[in-house]
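User: Hey, quick favor. My workstation is busy. Could you predict this chain's structure for me?
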Amino acid sequence: MIDVLIVDDSRVIRDYLVHLLQADPELRVIGTAVDGEEALAFVSEHRPDVILMDINMPRVDGLEVTRRIMMSAQPIPIVTCTSSSLYNETGTAMQCLEAGSLSLVKKPTGPLDPGAEAEAAELIRVVKAMAEVRLVRRWAGPRATPAVTSKLLPPLPTDRDVAVVAIGASTGGPPAILQLLSGLSPAFPAPILVVQHIARGFGAGFAEWLGQTSGLPVHVAQAGNPPLPGHVYVAPDDLHLRVGPRGELQTTKEEPHMGLRPAVGVLFRSVAERHGRRAVGVLLSGMGRDGAEELKLLSDLGATTIAQDEESCLVFGMPGEAVKLGAARYVLSPSAIAELLSRAARGGRG
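Assistant: No problem, here it is.
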């Protein structure tokens, strides 16, 4: 059984969510709370497997209580469950992820709505998936890790320039990507390609948020465009991102890889085929193993390969799998990865 806490200030919504979740034999609602204060009091005495959290509530809102729970000694997976209007606001969605929420879902509409069944199924799917996430650390936010001096970093190969940086991430990835990109100069001499597993409809908003907060120009990748140095290209919703034979961007609707589209593995494999040892592959926080084998392929070709370290990861799934395979030549925090990439751009010099 998966134990769930529901936090929402509307009794009607709470009752409906309890009804939907408990209709599934694998889910059990062990408590409800009307605001963040009640939620904090509940988790101090009980430990649900996952929390379904509203945003706008009296006393302590969902963003603040998410931060507090995720910064506690025993963080709990949190799924933000909000209205359609807030769900579609890019800024609000990204604030939730930055606060430590693992995923976002829309509050299901009433049972007479034509899409009610599909919405309920998606809610249950996300709750079950996030309950399986094993958080490995207290949440400290995307800019909490102190800057790393070059003296603390391992040596880099100095016999090549960097043609492209490919980054893959899933659960816990957006803040890690933000921290990494914020540590790079706009004059960074290579394009940066990003695959982030994120709910459909958030790809463009994620790119916009990164562009507003990182200091780098960020775009949703467009097929046929040549990637520019110092620019970041994010995979579009429900499309794989690849590098073509001439180095151009490709977005394709080919079959999902490991059930995912876009998939990190597809990007990494194309980068390996086009750029080989001149590529840099980076695997950040996320559940599953997408990209781990392809990072090993890059490593075998002599490329620079990096995994986020367990201490800074929210979820050490994907990078952990890469470490097990011996795919990562460097295992570092996002801020240290940014410093390493900056050194690589300077030809390995400190």
